[in-house]
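Review form for a predicted model. The reviewer records the input and the model, then writes brief findings.
Reviewer: anonymous (R2)
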Amino acid sequence: MILLSQELSRARIRDMDQEIAQLQLAARVRARRRARRDAQARAARVRRILLAR
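Model under review:
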């Protein structure tokens, strides 16, 4: 019975680790998209400024 309990605990920990890894991956994807969008907006502002001169 103890071995079954330990195995269930290990399975839960593995599941949680996988879930955390997926959340971290999603957060990195969102951060990259946000950074790319910010860089594009910054580049557009610079182009407008330079073209206005």
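Findings: The longest helix spans residues 2-52.
Further findings: The chain has a mean pLDDT of 94.
Recommendation: see findings above.
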